[in-house]
């Protein structure tokens, strides 16, 4: 029986004047194409106006257009996202009460919560938490066990904290009154009681003094949790009298009145004052019948049925109220079916529009991704080309310096060559015998042959032939003289002379300009072109082609004589 009264938790949340209202869906959806390009602010104002006038299908279209701008609005436009968040809240409320689709309502509100957190909009966050609380309170009520889940309790706690952080007095009042209502069902919950204590220390601004009764409402829940039932009942009566005498808004008055009566029923049950509880339930049933609120009637009749079955042990009266509750449930189901039939076409078109917009947004995102990917690829290619160009320029500069160094070496070698020729011409040798003390004279003759003889550029030039040309009796003397002077083998010495001559010929376009690099290699005695390239790079630091390119970049005055 105790749990039966907890079902009435949803009463104040379901008491809205347009519950079960239907839209004819005829001719209004065409406004989508007319309205879709209107500014977001104008659409939001139109949606609120239609909502207040119970023109819910038009409000749904307005808010749908606003929400669909979520993916196309620049992230820098905080105010636009705030309006989108408000529209998401309105859609959440409409799907909670009007369309009775709690899953979709929850999705809309979670997206609004994401916007509020991402763009730091405290007031929007507080309002979103309050609406999420409503969805989950109703969802808990439909499960049938009469309890409020820990998740829902935590949502109420977050709503209270968020409204405090936003410095939103109206939000604080609403969240505190909701917490007081839940606390009367979930007794001794530490989270709820701590929030109530914090609210009782909260200072309402002067503009909100008309809601002073919320303090008494929270105080009543606090006293009920402490077991001070008489004090709590007195406070509930004060709150009820205050709401009835001061709240001029009939719809608001009904919501708060039935919520307080619900709490009083719980309290009277705990006090075993069943007759007073029954009087309240009978009164609620009569008033809800007058107002045509079948959900409230069903809950009241079901609570009465549970009492007579479980407490009074009066099965006849219990069955009577059970039948009345089932009747109200059937009426609600038939109304919902009728609403579903009339709204099916309209909602189907809304879903199709949403799907089209999402598909368009997806295509636009894919196009942007492709465009950015291409731009990134172009940047990478440009960066790679720049690095290649930079490396090429560095390589060119390096080659230029190597080439200039080789020119300087060639000039020095040419000067040394002339000195050897002049020295050899003044010294005529007679003896063909080379003793140890005559190695210096032998070296001069060897150097003279190496510097002046064209035979060293023959492919078959050998140490034996050099021995003959210097008129020496033993190639060993010649080899010793070469090693003592050059500190390297005869083949390496010959290759160095040939490479030096190849450089001279490359630098002499007048006589060798028509020669290919390979022809120049053969002309200086290299039978193998790869061998020539290897030796050329070894002695100059450049490949033959790179050397020739450097020569081509030099002005004529730089050419050696």
Explain what the structure shows.
It is a single chain. The chain is an all-alpha fold and 561 residues long. The chain has a domain at 390-558: Homeodomain-like (Arc Repressor Mutant, subunit A). 75% of the residues lie in helices and 0% in strands. The protein has 25 helices and no strands. The protein has helices at 2-6, 11-14, 31-35, 40-52, 56-67, 78-97, 102-118, 122-142, 150-165, 169-183, 190-200, 213-226, 229-246, 250-270, 274-291, 294-310, 315-426, 439-452, 463-469, 475-486, 490-506, 509-512, 517-523, 529-540, 544-553. α6 packs parallel to α8 (122-142) and α7 (102-118) packs antiparallel against α8. Mean pLDDT is 80; it is low at 1-28, 428-437 and 557-561.
């Amino acid at each position: 029986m105790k749990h039966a009264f907890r079902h009435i938790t949803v009463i104040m949340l379901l008491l809205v004047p347009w519950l079960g209202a239907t839209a004819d869906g005829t001719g209004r959806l065409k406004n989508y194409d007319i309205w879709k390009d209107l500014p977001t602010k104008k659409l939001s104002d139109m949606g609120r106006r239609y909502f207040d006038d119970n023109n819910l299908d038009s409000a749904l279209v307005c808010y749908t257009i606003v929400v669909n701008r979520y993916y196309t609005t620049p992230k820098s436009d905080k105010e636009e996202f705030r309006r989108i968040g408000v529209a998401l809240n309105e859609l959440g409320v409409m799907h909670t009460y009007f369309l009775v689709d709690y899953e979709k309502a929850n999705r809309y509100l979670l997206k609004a919560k994401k916007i509020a957190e991402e763009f730091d909009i405290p007031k929007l966050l507080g309002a979103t938490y309050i609406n999420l609380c409503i969805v989950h309170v109703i969802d808990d009520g439909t499960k049938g066990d009469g309890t409020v889940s820990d998740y829902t309790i935590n949502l109420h706690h977050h709503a209270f904290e968020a409204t405090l952080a936003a410095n939103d007095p109206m939000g604080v009042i609403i969240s505190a009154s909701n917490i007081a209502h839940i606390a009367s069902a979930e007794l001794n919950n530490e989270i709820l009681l701590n929030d109530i204590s914090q609210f009782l220390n909260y200072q309402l601004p002067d503009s909100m003094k008309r809601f002073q009764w919320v303090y008494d409402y929270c105080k009543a829940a606090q006293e009920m949790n402490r077991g001070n039932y008489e004090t709590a009942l007195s406070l509930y009566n004060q709150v009820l009298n205050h709401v009835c005498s001061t709240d001029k808004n009939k719809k608001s008055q009904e919501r708060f009145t039935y919520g307080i009566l619900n709490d009083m029923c719980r309290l009277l049950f705990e006090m075993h004052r069943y007759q007073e509880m029954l009087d309240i339930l009978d009164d609620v049933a009569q008033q809800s019948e007058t107002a045509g609120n079948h959900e409230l009637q069903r809950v009241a009749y079901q609570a009465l049925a549970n009492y007579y079955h479980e407490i009074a042990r009066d099965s006849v009266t219990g069955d009577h109220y059970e039948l009345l509750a089932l009747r109200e449930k059937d009426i609600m189901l038939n109304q919902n079916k009728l609403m579903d039939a009339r709204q099916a076409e309209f909602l189907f078109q809304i879903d199709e529009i949403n799907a089209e917009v999402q598909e368009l947004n997806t295509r636009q995102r894919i196009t942007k991704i492709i465009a950015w990917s291409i731009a990134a690829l172009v940047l990478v290619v440009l960066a790679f080309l720049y690095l290649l160009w930079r490396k090429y320029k560095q390589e060119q500069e390096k080659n230029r310096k190597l080439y200039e160094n080789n020119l300087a070496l060639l000039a020095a070698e040419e000067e040394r060559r002339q000195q050897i020729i002049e020295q050899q011409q003044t010294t005529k040798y007679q003896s063909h015998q080379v003793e140890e003390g005559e190695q210096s004279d032998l070296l001069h003759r060897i150097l003279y042959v190496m510097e002046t003889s064209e035979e060293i550029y023959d492919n078959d030039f050998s140490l034996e032939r050099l021995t003959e040309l210097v008129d020496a009796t033993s190639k060993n003397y010649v080899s010793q003289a070469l090693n003592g002077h050059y500190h390297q083998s005869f083949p390496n010495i010959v290759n160095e002379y040939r490479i030096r001559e190849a450089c001279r010929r490359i630098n002499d376009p007048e006589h060798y300009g028509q020669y290919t690099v390979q022809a120049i290699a053969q002309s200086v005695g290299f039978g193998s072109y790869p061998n020539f390239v290897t030796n050329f790079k070894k002695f100059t630091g450049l490949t033959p082609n790179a050397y020739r390119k450097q020569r081509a970049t030099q002005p004529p005055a730089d050419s050696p004589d």
